[in-house]
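User: Can you recover a sequence for this backbone? Please restate the input before giving your answer.

Assistant: Of course. Working from this structure:
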């Protein structure tokens, strides 16, 4: 029996799911991510094992995805969010061609083919006004809990769209609407209408190919689904039993399951986890920074030695090129001393 686990460490929530050999869901777990990603991954994994009635030794393979995919030491592999969402979507709804994922800090529009391969994508990760975090912040101003947003907004009779595309200005707009006596439910629904319109614009940038699927935490919000479908003029596939929020984790688990099946068919062993491989696999390589303080200076490839130069300048020299001359402070002083004072 194969038990493949997928863990999606998002900016707001960390999700986990376990699939067995029959591609059936054994169990799920969700918890707040917080600021300690590694601890969130470990905690949600323990929750998952408890919900599934499994021990760690019963888990065959662990795949991670999401922002914090590299901090999961017990993973066997990591998967990009786009790949995980694309694979899960086409497994749950084979006719899916366009995916809209609304997360806590970004929105993704993904176009896929029949095999679940990503053909195009667009991200909105620069402004919070187009994300789930914006709705949660609006709800806090209105004194609502996150789980109450959808049912409360459904009571709206005259939604008041938030015109600002900036979260900071949108916040001021919400305060002004409240001060003018606009009902809270109309403001909440208006925020959803505004978010929905921006999300559909992002989808249009990848191409609106029928077979639409909605993923992310907004799949638990009935009012948000209605706003999106109204803006799109078509219906979205929404996975049942809360799987819409776990779509990324589902995709990671599914890809892990396929990997195990392939390895066993070829008579190969399961690869070691990141922790077993050592520290080099725990984090992506750090990029050079001119401002970073490091104990070891930049080294050139080969036998060039430790020069402490900026990589671009040093690499030019190693290739036989003469790097551009950089004027030193002493040269600046010398030139200043030679300068002829202006006459009146």
């Amino acid at each position: 029996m194969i038990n493949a686990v997928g863990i999606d460490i998002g900016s707001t929530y960390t999700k986990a799911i376990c699939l067995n050999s029959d591609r059936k869901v054994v169990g799920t777990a969700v918890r707040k991510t917080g600021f300690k990603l590694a601890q969130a991954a470990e905690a949600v994994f323990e929750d998952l094992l408890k919900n599934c009635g499994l021990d760690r030794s019963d888990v065959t393979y662990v795949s991670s995805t999401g922002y914090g995919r590299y901090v999961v030491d017990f993973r066997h592999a990591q998967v990009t969010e786009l790949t995980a969402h694309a694979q899960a979507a086409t497994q749950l709804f084979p006719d899916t061609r366009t995916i809209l994922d609304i997360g806590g800090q970004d929105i993704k529009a993904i176009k896929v083919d029949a095999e679940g391969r990503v053909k195009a994508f667009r991200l909105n990760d620069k402004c919070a006004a187009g994300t789930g975090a914006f709705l949660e912040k609006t709800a806090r101003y209105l004194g609502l809990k996150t789980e109450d947003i959808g049912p409360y907004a459904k009571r709206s009779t005259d939604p008041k769209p938030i015109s600002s595309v900036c979260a900071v200005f949108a916040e001021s707009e919400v305060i002004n609407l409240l001060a003018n006596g606009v009902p809270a439910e109309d403001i909440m629904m208006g925020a959803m209408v505004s978010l929905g319109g921006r999300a559909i614009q992002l989808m249009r940038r990848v191409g609106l190919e029928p077979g639409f699927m909605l993923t992310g935490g907004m799949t638990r919000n009935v009012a948000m689904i209605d706003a999106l479908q109204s803006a799109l003029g078509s219906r979205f596939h929404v996975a049942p039993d809360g799987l819409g929020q776990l779509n990324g984790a589902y995709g990671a688990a599914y890809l892990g399951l396929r990997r195990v099946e392939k390895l066993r068919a070829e008579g190969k062993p399961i690869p070691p986890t990141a922790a077993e491989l050592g520290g080099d696999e725990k984090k992506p390589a750090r990029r050079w920074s001119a401002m970073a303080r490091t104990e070891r200076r930049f080294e050139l490839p080969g036998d060039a030695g430790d020069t402490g130069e900026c990589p671009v300048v040093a690499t030019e020299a190693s290739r036989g090129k003469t790097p551009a001359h950089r004027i030193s402070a002493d040269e600046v002083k010398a030139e200043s001393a030679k300068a002829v004072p202006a006459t009146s």
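That completes the design. Strands lie at 3-9, 13-20, 25-32, 61-66, 77-78, 98-102, 107-112, 118-124, 212-216.
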